[in-house]
Design a protein that fits this description.
The mean pLDDT is 74. By secondary structure, this protein is of the alpha+beta class. The chain has a four-stranded antiparallel sheet with strand order 1-2-3-4. 12% of the residues lie in helices and 14% in strands. It has a domain of 86 residues. One of its GO terms (biological process) is maturation of SSU-rRNA. It comes from Friedmanniomyces endolithicus. This is Programmed cell death protein 2 C-terminal domain-containing protein.
């Protein structure tokens, strides 16, 4: 039997990414917008989207709200209030067909909120430090332990390394050079003996 459990995950295999994974909870949270199922709450109640957006493209029936998510990203989009809506058809005949699940984003832009978010950033003096040159990591060399015969910084498809020159076209005909020192094939009469005569 193996000395490891294939279903367990080792602590040294953890990789950090920018993806956030959310789980539904029964306890109330501070987020009052995100919900599973139910009825959508729109950013602007006076201008709701057209009902045709929530229709199944397979059976033409209305889709059910699967998820409504508060999706603000103030670091990248200051002043933008964003919500994501995921809709799905309940009918079994529509499952796994194109158009049975639909998603869209609702955005409301507030210029004053964007200005207030940008204003403190403008007040701070911008200090730029010179970027330290990080050595590039050759992934193939790291994984397999073999040095590449080609420099990692060079483009193998670049035309500058071609033998004809920097600006050459690899599909162009080679220039014909006419020289006076070109030797003409000699006459067969000058040969001492042919292969047919030797046989």
């Amino acid at each position: 039997m193996a000395d490891y459990d294939s279903d367990s995950s080792g602590g040294d295999n953890d990789i950090e990414t920018n993806v956030l994974l959310g789980y539904a909870s029964k306890e109330p949270t501070i987020d009052h917008v995100s919900q599973l199922g139910g009825h959508p709450t729109w950013l602007d109640a006076q201008t709701c989207p057209d009902g045709s957006l929530a229709k199944c493209k397979v059976c033409n029936g209305f889709l059910s709200l699967l998820l409504q998510l508060y999706a603000d990203v103030p670091e990248r989009f200051p002043g933008h209030e964003r919500r994501l809506y995921i809709w799905a058809c309940k009918l079994k005949a529509c499952r796994r067909k194109s158009g049975s699940i639909r998603g869209f984003r609702s955005v409301r832009y507030t210029a004053s909120a964007a200005f207030n978010a940008v204003k403190p950033a403008l007040a701070e003096p911008v200090v730029t430090e010179p970027a330290s040159a990080k050595p590039t990591v050759n992934l193939g060399e790291t994984l397999f332990g073999v040095k590449s015969p080609v420099d990692a910084q060079t483009n193998p498809f670049a035309l500058s390394k071609q033998p004809q020159g920097v600006d050459s076209n690899p599909f162009a005909r080679l220039p014909t050079q006419v020289s006076s020192s070109v030797q003409r094939p000699s006459d067969t009469n000058s040969l001492s003996e042919t292969f047919a005569q030797k046989a």
